[in-house]
Amino acid sequence: MASPAAPNIHWSKDFVEHLRTVHFALIAVALGLIVVVLSLKPYKMDVALRELHEILQLKKLWSPDWFEGHGQSEDFAPRNGAKARPNGLDVYLDEVTPVKSKKSFYGKATWAKTKKSALIDFKLPAKNWSEDEDSHCLVSLDSFPTTLKDFQPWWNSLQSACVAYFPQGVGRSGKILAGPSKTVGEIFVYEENAEHPVTDVFGARRVELDLTADVKDDSFEYFADDAGESDVFDIQLLRVSRVRLTQQDIIAAFPQWRNGSYEKSFFDLANAAGDVTNLELIDADKTLTDKGGKTEELFFEVFGLKFPAKQITFWGVILLAGVQLYLFVYLKHFSGKLQPEDPGWDVPWIGMDESALGRIVFLTTLLIFPCLATILLSYRELSQLITPWNARSWAELVGFISAVAASTLLGVLSWKYRPRTQ
Question: Could you tell me the residue ranges of all domains in the chain?
Fold first, then answer.
């Protein structure tokens, strides 16, 4: 007994379904690469590491003296010191004893009632400056951010000026107070400089001063408790420097930095840092170095993962060209063999749709998507090439043009050999 005949399945149906699968793969690869490239965050690891090194350098240099030396300084006479100046004139001559870059100065305290006097060694405070709290600045003169997470708001706050006040000179006279407003004696502050040093200081009693500043009332004074007499010494400041520090002042010391937010000023570091932002700066430096900070290669970050730019560009173009070439070969092999009555026309695929809209969509997926993906891939890398261009740069440009030309040619040829009725 004869076996039943096998069903007659025409070759065109399987062939068209295979073409449809390859076409879908081309669309998926092209669109996938376009989405990836548009979501990329390109950065150079060596630049990120250089930026971090410079932040560490600033951390080592940071001090009140650095702030004062690099900020924009303006000397002025506090309003509360006017009574201590002759005729209230802003003249800084013999009536001012400089206190800048000193550890202490000397004065003679005399109590009015007892006529008792004492030589006092007035020790300047360790914090011999006052920060303007009204400026809402996150910068502290005696501390520096320890992590990149802390450095980010620190740097952002410097987009507006951070202000601090530094004593420059005190009046030649002061007061001894027994209460908030009761004066019980006077202080004569010795003038001391290289030409007139104070030498007879044997037996001087040392007291430590505190700086009090009221920026709103323009009042700056030194106060100190006199343990020996239970009184308070009050010495007014006649000259103060107002120092304003902004990002631009720091950039003058670090020329490769830029104005703006942390993400803009430290673009490469912000993108390369990732999970090291919470580490101590020195530990973050070691971690980034281990991740490839010694190279000048451009990196991309895709969905939290970091890849060398050349790998994405090279393999992306190769993959896309491979799918295009495969589809072209089979379209050319299929061209002219499909008859109007063949069942391949019944396969639901946009390539078999001969309507105007179907042709436009098919052309877009064959030509526009692959070319756009190739252009975006190559442009991302070429935009990072250094100038003036060298032989390597020109070679990469030639490669970019060749890749776009090849993608365009494969797309045009695939369109030429698209399925059509004879």
Answer: 11-39+306-416, 71-246
Query: 11-38 vs 309-334: helix axis angle to the nearest 10?
Result: 160
Buried b (16+ CB within 10 A) or exposed e, 260-275: eebeebbbbbbbbbee
Contact predicate 42/300, CB 8 Å: yes
pLDDT of the residue at 228: 61
Task: Measure the N-to-C terminal CA separation of the chain; round to a whole number of Å.
Answer: 43
In angstroms, the CA 70 to CA 74 distance is: 12
pTM (predicted TM-score): 0.64
CB 306 within 8 A of CB 43: no
Mean pLDDT value across the chain:
82
| Fold entry, domain 11-39+306-416 | Methane Monooxygenase Hydroxylase; Chain G, domain 1 (1.20.58)
Contact partners, residue 9, CB within 8 Å, separation at least 6: none
Strands 104-111 and 183-189, bridge-based pairing: antiparallel
Give the bridge partners for 307, in sequence order: 300
Look at the block and give the residue holding tokens 């006077």.
186
pLDDT of residue 45: 79
d(C-alpha 223, C-alpha 176), whole Å? 10
At 12-52, the pLDDT tens digits run: 888 999 999 999 999 999 998 888 888 766 677 788 899 99
